[in-house]
Amino acid sequence: MSQQQKSKQSPHPLVRLMKYGRRYRVLIWQAVTCSIFNKIFDLAPPALIGAAVDVVVQRQDSIIAKLGITDIFGQLLFLSVLSALVWGLESLFQYTYERLWRNLAQNIQHDLRLDAYSHIQDLELAYFEDRSTGTLLSILNDDVNQLERFLDIGANEILQVITTVIIISGAFFILTPNTAWMAMLPIPFILWGSIAFQNLLAPRYGDVREKVSLLNSRLANNLSGITTIKSYTTERYEIERLRVDSEAYRQSNQRAIKLSAAFVPLIRIIILAGFTAILLFGGMEVVEGRLAVGTYSVLVFLTQRLLWPLTRLGQTLDLYQRAMASTNRVMNLLDTPIAIHSGNIALPVSTIKGEIVLDNISFAYQERYPVIENLSLHIPAGKTIAIVGSTGSGKSTLVKLLLRLYEVQRGRITLDGIDINDIILYDLRRGIGLVSQDVFLFHGSVRENIAYGSPDATIDDIMMAAKAAEAHEFIIKLPQGYDTIVGERGQKLSGGQRQRISIARAILKDPPILILDEATSAVDNETEAAIARSLEKITQNRTTIAIAHRLSTIRHAECIYVLEYGQIVERGTHEELLEKEGIYANLWRVQTGIRQLGLTH
């Protein structure tokens, strides 16, 4: 289904936004009420000026005199006190509506950003395969902020324009029904022009949001890969690529600006027609005695107060269209269905024994050939097994299926006899510790990274885990020890140091099931030996799945499975597999440089 078809089927973005903001309906109504009352009192001064003119001209026959105040000074004093009251109430309601709208904008953008991010975390990994980090960052930051700006300013502007039109139109038809139509004449043209501009601007601002998304994606990607850019001396190439994306964003904005900038000048011309009509024909009504001077003054002021604010519709419309384009993008993200749902069977960590059964499972990534096909495997509780195989054989995919980062398409996986689809997702993942070849450390201290996932851990617990991972010695030599900042993605540490912190993190989690996914693939021999010693200690009495290219790291596993093209082709202990002289034996000879099978023992 195309994006246009989706947009036609989905509700208007303003409807979607109002539906999302239902929890704030009390705050919304309070803000709306204060905006309306502020505008009512803001429109009172022209009436007070007209009344003052009426006092000066009509004196004892003025409107105020009919209230019982015959003294001219008393009439003017009454108008002065009334003016002070009106101005005070206008200021009070302005202060209140600004606070309410701004707080509403802050609350909604805060909730929307958290809800959108929370939803992203619940999406399966397949969702991220076709989307860049920059695109998602653009939605979470730029689009949410754009919506905040509209709620801050634009919503109040729209309400006050509507209030102005209703009140002044009513006043015109009450005071001078004969000439009221002259002031009202431009309004249908202004509204028609506004709607026409809105329809023309909507796709242009949608394109602007897409272009800024691509630009953010380029910047995020380049900043993540700055080392590669420098090492391949592609700085000029990347600047040129960024220039192209930035130019596309600039051009997209210019197309929108070209149209939106034309709105105010055109509206001014339409307003001029209404203003001059009242000025001319209303004046003639006064000369001919059919209209009081004070009423004429009110009409002239009200015409200006009615029509002139409509020129701001251009800016308000600009804010509105940008906000609606952003709302669509954020709401589309929130409406993205979650493919992997949690089960409802609780399985606390303390109750997990760790027996895993893969029963005839098959899996393929989107529009690709099967990575795993009809695979069955039994992993006894508390045992250490190893999985080896060439690149692309499906080893790491098995890890993702066990963690339910992807769903098996046929067959099933059970943990302690329970289908993992039926287990509460949090319990399942809490019971599995993963040490991956691609170690991710967060920007923060060593202590914080080891304790990640174990927020209640004490410094003694953290140090104990670090010692078990043989990381304590290098940590205490760092400038601030356990409080040393590791940098983004742990860039201040070596690969081996990052790996040992990752192992310490898994040890501290103390899971009944441990998965080692190429845990020593990117370290030197000395570090590998240190990691091997720590792994030997922590794998005791827990189910361990070791995935490795380096066969020397898994030769002591109780059972080794050889995976090729998503199927198990060999199984057995290290010695048994060498005797078979199959794929495993060939891999062993290649890695050890031994040509004769008899020399492997």
UniProtKB/TrEMBL annotation:
GO molecular function (one): ATP binding
Annotated keywords: ATP-binding, Membrane, Nucleotide-binding, Transmembrane, Transmembrane helix, Transport
Membrane topology: Multi-pass membrane protein
Residues passing through the membrane, by range: 26-52, 72-93, 158-175, 181-201, 259-283
Subcellular location: Cell membrane
Location of the ABC transmembrane type-1 domain: 29-322
Gene Ontology, cellular component aspect: plasma membrane
PROSITE patterns xrefs: ABC_TM1F, ABC_TRANSPORTER_1, ABC_TRANSPORTER_2
Keyword Transcription regulation among record annotations: no
Sequence ranges assigned to domain ABC transporter in this UniProt record: 356-590
Gene3D superfamilies per the UniProt record, alphabetical: ABC transporter type 1, transmembrane domain (1.20.1560.10), P-loop containing nucleotide triphosphate hydrolases (3.40.50.300)
Pfam families: ABC_membrane (PF00664), ABC_tran (PF00005)
Lyase in keyword set: no
Protein name listed in UniProt: ABC transporter related
